């Protein structure tokens, strides 16, 4: 049985608790769910302290307790998840083969990633409710093969923040307004807001988000979680034809993990990267650079030693003098130096004013054109859907206006996208402009200064990294005077993930900044 929610968090909570009350199996009493990692879960499995079923039940109870306030989850499939746990536990008891890499790990998918079965993939849009994908997105197929338990879908900014300008971050008609678990009045940021909220609040072991330009980096920063944005092509690019994901069609979209630790993010990254025959063009080249032995070998305590890091100051560090952020970053840079890294300070990227302006850089033109192309292709292949084109979605929205307080924001981006006609001269000029900005910007600065990575606060470098499909890792760095989290970002050139993982893991272990939110929750 599927349980869907449209502003019905309390109903979801009641349903889950009634469902679990009827189960004969008891949940694990001794296991500590909060801040549990993939490794700690697997140790508990091995020690007989926990089963996959009891773990999923614990997470479902936590969702029931917290989601009415946080709005991090759109849809759940508790029956499907629990049935999968029984199969996983039976396989583990038989001992006939080694368990897969992510055996028994509960996962929430962002609500723009298609999974075969009862779950919708709607990008937060009411127009997509009732749609049925023909098969799993490539990343979901890989996750299932790795042994995960799919709990349901996480909320987001509608159409991944591409409905129209001004829509509040973390809001969608299906999910309502997502809340920052640290400071509810603060932004959860967009568009993978629900994935970040759920990971931060320990509502799933792992969550999966997507990013075109800042959609992982920003919510990871504001919710004190780790986000890995891999090189474009390491995971299949769902914006391309036949890839079953309802996301804006930018050529640089990536699927990626959001977790509470760098180690967990790397575990998931290993499971989802690699060549995908359904996305051969995008994945063939990048997959050649996946290190033999995987990425976990880069989880080194001394990973900062000998690294050369460039600190981007101008256009990035905009904290008030004397602020908590200014003090904390100064302390972090001292730690990074003591860990053996060489810091090159006061670097700046030429033309950041252009890079940060999606219209001037040409990024907006590409997003508008490719959104329509990819979305129409996706809709045409759905096994079942009430809408088959972007035009249908616009018509649906006209007939079903959003709540009055948000009506002024409209659906301008959808309308502008529907007016495009594929990749023409305007888009080709935009591609050329973006390539030039990359070569004269990040690539030149890193090459001239012999850098292993750049360092910037929070998501301030999101557009810089997005336009070239460059990788990055955000790691919790501290909490402002009002309690809102902020992060540090390590970014690099394409396929530099091994170096970035070494740097990020070493920093995380040396600082251990992350703390769970102080949530006042109770089982309803």
Task: Describe this entry's structure for a reader.
This is Amidase domain-containing protein. It comes from Panicum miliaceum (Proso millet). Pfam families: Amidase. Keywords: Signal. With about 525 residues, the protein is an alpha/beta fold. It has one domain: Amidase signature (AS) enzymes. The protein is about 40% helix and about 15% strand. The strands form 2 sheets. Strands 1-2-4-3-7-9-8-13-14-12-10-11 form a 12-stranded mixed beta sheet, with helices on both faces. A two-stranded antiparallel ribbon has the order 5-6. The radius of gyration is 22 Å and the shape is globular. Mean pLDDT is about 90; it is low at about 235-250.
Supply the number of helical segments: 20
- Total strand segments: 14
Tell me, rounded to a whole number, the average pLDDT.
Answer: 90
Cα separation of the termini: 21 Å
What's the CATH topology name?
Amidase signature (AS) enzymes
Number of domains: 1
Radius of gyration: 22 Å
* Percent in strands: 5-15%
The CATH class label is: Alpha Beta
Low-pLDDT runs: 237-251
CATH superfamily: Amidase signature (AS) domain
Largest sheet: 12 strands, mixed
CATH architecture: Alpha-Beta Complex
Query: Can you give the helix content as a percent range?
Result: 25-40%
| Major sheet strand order | 1-2-4-3-7-9-8-13-14-12-10-11
Structural class: alpha/beta
Overall morphology: globular
